[in-house]
Here is the input.
Amino acid sequence: MEWNWPTAEELMSALRAGEVTSVELTDEAITRIERDDEAINAICVPDFDRARATAHQADQARARGEDRPLLGLPVTVKECYDIAGLPTTWGMPMHRDFVPAEDAVQVSRLRAAGAVVLGKTNVPLGLQDLQSFNDIYGTTRNPWDHDRTPGGSSGGSAAALAAGFGALSIGSDIAGSLRTPAHFCGVHAHKPTLGLAANRGMVAPQAPALPVDLDLAVVGPMARTARDLTLLLDVMAGPDPLTHGVAHDLALPPARHQRLGDFQVLVLDEHPFIPTGSAVRAGVNRVADALTDGGARVERHSPLLPDLAEAATLYAQLLFSGSVAHFPVDADEQLRTRAAGLSADDQSLDAARLRGMVLSHRDWIEANNRRELHRHGWRRFFTEFDAVVCPITPTPAFPHDHAPDLLERRIDIDGVEHPYFDQLVWAGLATMPGLPATAIPAGLSSEGLPVGVQLIGPMFEDRTPLRLAELLEQRIGGFQVPAAQRPGTLADRTQTHDHPGLRSRT
Here is the structure.
């Protein structure tokens, strides 16, 4: 019999039943972090004194009869969110001493829901990598294999969840930054529909925390189970009160179906720009088989699917046009010189990225118009299908690669090297049109590494892929505890029934 850590949902039930206190949960989480995080380095900015004080206040509030969605629950927060009194650096050494005065809107929502913030989780430099390391806080390691990355840019959050450092975390995603770490660490994550969750205060250090509409980027929940994603998304969802009044409630439509057999799903495991590694292909097939066995209608091809090659090219242009917006003038001139030397016949993703870096405003508007055509194509697609199942990246977690030039890095797919950034095409499939996508565990590779897939759903119908994730978790299993993390004091206590509401699941 193998135990898993209690879910956020189970912990909340135990707190409400008086079977455990917030102070106990918080002390346990801090003990686990102090014991295990030296090897993993997920929690880059601990906030333990305030966490203990908040936990004590939560227990007092519950004693008065109060209840809130996350009252007394320990959680973590990605480093890029402003938390008053803690540094926000985005891993950039020149900002190591920047401390914001106000919480990000999502941190405020966590606090309003009663959560206990344990601290901040590590990120890559400028949030611009599929790994999580920087010169301030060092390298975060994957709890499954310390020689491999946990992913990025929400890698610290995913590693924290896989290591048992709190039940929930919040991250962000523009290039798979929620989904890739979930895939690499064997946890769940949800990239919400673009614009669903307010992002104010998830801003680069020194920049003003304004309620801006970000292109491509979203903020979203991470957890060890699918139901916990929904619990946290309900806290995060809604527009910014600065632009939409005080209330942040946003009613999302219910999931299209409650039974697995009612879903109609397109399964993809091939992309025109990059092969899918055997381990990931096996994970996709495990999910496809579970869908078929559950009675769902599963297709492998559809003429309604927007063109994958055009989508990947468009995503690369839009992503990199934003990533270089604040480059110095001399760097911009060098990029324009390089782009001018491209052959018109060069339709590679490298070329698309370079062209994106020098897009004029006129060209960007044209690219944005093409994006709208893709969005309309997806609307037609989702009249016939409820979700797409596909990879998140072509491989499980890869070994740490700190080569400074990201454009020169390579990713090994079954023994063949490919450009490092080409692996973003699957993440971009949902990001470019702004669709919701839920990352779920889909078993282990032959090397014992987690493999995840994503479930892409219709815009503003986030509950549909989230419900599908729940149903698949019931059929194929979900989070597994990394072997090195299995001993734990809270788990040992639950096995001896000290807290009946926290007994392990089998």
Summary: Residues 488-506 have pLDDT under 50 and may be disordered. The longest helix spans residues 361-381. The longest strand covers residues 437-444. The chain has 16 helices and 15 strands.
